[in-house]
Amino acid sequence: MKKYIMLLLIIAVGCSPQKKGEKSGSAMQAIDDATITTLMGSITADMPGADTRLLEKGIRHAASLWRQEDGTAAEFSDFVKNNYIADPAKRKQVFLKISNFLESLSGNFNEIVIDLRKNLDEATGEIDDVDRMFGTYSPGSHLSDDFYTNKIAFYIALNYPYYTLAEKEELGPSWTREEWAMARLGDMFVSRVPAEISQAAGLASGNAEMYISEYNICMGKLRTDDGRQLFPDDMVLLSHWNLRDEIKSNYAEGEKGTEKQDMIYKVMERIIRQEIPKVVINNPEYEWAPFSNKVTKDGKPAEAEPEPDTRYEHVLNIFKAHLAADPYNPEMNTAILRKFSAEMEISQEEIEVLFDSYLRSPELAKLGKLISERLGRELKPYDIWYDGFKARNSYPDDKLTAKTSALYPNPDAFKADMPEMLKKLGWSSDRAKYLADKIVVDPARGSGHAWGAGMRGAKSHLRTRISEKGMDYKGYNIAVHEFGHNVEQTISLYDVDYYTMSGVPNTAVTEALAFVFQHRDLFLLGIKENDPEAEKVEILDAAWSLMEIMGVGMTEMLVWKWLYENPGATAAQLKEKTIDIAAETWNKYYAPVFGVQDSPVLAIYSHTIDVPLYLPNYSYGHIVQFQIENYLKDKKLASEVDRMFSQGRLSPQQWMMGAVGSKISAEPILESLREVLD
Length: 678
Fold this sequence. Notes:
It is a single chain. This protein is mainly alpha-helical. The chain has four domains: 2-191, no CATH class; 212-311, no CATH class; 329-389 and 532-677, no CATH class; 396-524, no CATH class. It has 31 helices and eleven strands. It is globular, with a radius of gyration of 26 Å.
């Protein structure tokens, strides 16, 4: 998962200017149309060469943000007359100054947050209450208020106004890089969310992150109902990531592997239904039989209460924090709108139609039948993670772990090998060193993530799990994924011409490059297979993986729709509805493929708890990745990646047109799947 920390963008994430007469909290918009019309006439008379279209857009944008506490209509008029920049050369000069100021603020705040969260995100030892207090503190939460108080926000809104997604799509193809950069500056001030609400949202998210990062299952303490131990004593797996990856790793072990997979699936079900005994979470003192749900300690029966819907309480807390911010986002007035139309720059409705059309594809049932034949049994719900199309399937997990732990006994070893990995992917020695020097590697407390730098001169952080025995294969696989994020973060910051254009259109695009890297994890280990069927099985794997991740994304979207329809829901009600939605989604799309009804497994993803509405980015990212991989087949990966990601933050469709010459679509992967199945 990529951590997006653009603190200045948090100021106004995903909103549109407020309409005349609407409330923002308790404050009314203070500027009426008559004032705006008078201002237009006055300024155009004084500045006959002014761009009237841009002038009106800027005045209306600034007016939409002006509140009674900011001053009278006359004071607003004076502000506009004194601060409007009509001269294009002067406007560019000021824009460059603002960009430098914002880079300093955003970058340094980002470094502060990294420092404050160090003990929460990295495996530094026991977490104390003071770590939680500082780690959930948002130092930039008052910055928005300050910028409205000192009028910086209005200055930017006036001279660099906001463009809607529709306007960007219409006008963007003809914009220069400079015009795009100024439009992205306009995205930064489009709402006024009070600091206390931003702070509450940060606290809710931070608490959920801590909950998830410590949600470990002590696999060596699991027992079958007849008392057998299936997993090593020292195996500890984080839900859901490591549990899922353990399911994947056991396809190479035949019936023994199936028994392990059955047990892991039951663990997942217990977590989803909150039937898991609280005492077995991140606690090696108790033995637990997931099928009977009985707990023992030192072989003797022990009393154990189930976890009290904590999982869903965190979701509810985050939802309520978003709900509190909704009134301050007049058009993008739900978290759903802000996540999709603003952050992803594609509507939730478009995403849902895209997912629905893919999940209904008859080719998926054919693919499911093929997998069943390969397994020699009927499909089970956890086979959504079937991993038998990957090359590594022929390499047992323990052999891969032996190799990775020897290569990477600690974070420094992985860091030291980064330039060599980049050279294997096609970068020159100098370029590989340039990129690797801007990334640091830390031992993760959770599953791992990539945290980008916020300014040039700072470094991105790669975090992955590394035990005392070294980096196991699961940790390595995640580390390579996050390495892809870090490379994107570096290119899209250091090699982009304007700071406000730094980054990528949305998280799906950065996930795409992370997948490109992760897809080459065995290659980077020096494991090569000369399999003439490799391309075909890769298409099969991509199609099946996309089906899996689309389902969990669809489930989460439907849950959040329900939350907005039922804002007063309790954690217990949310739990029951989440399970119902997961089962309904399963029955609609997956039961025809699997022949199994009512599975709740689509609700297991931990992302739904600590980073809500992030999951659709993965599916979108898979689609983008497939198109990029197709494009890269006869080209040099390194030079093309440099070219693509130095485009910066265009709109997604325009970025894709620049990257591969076509818009984002699932049809290429379906077409390839049909060819292989035929």
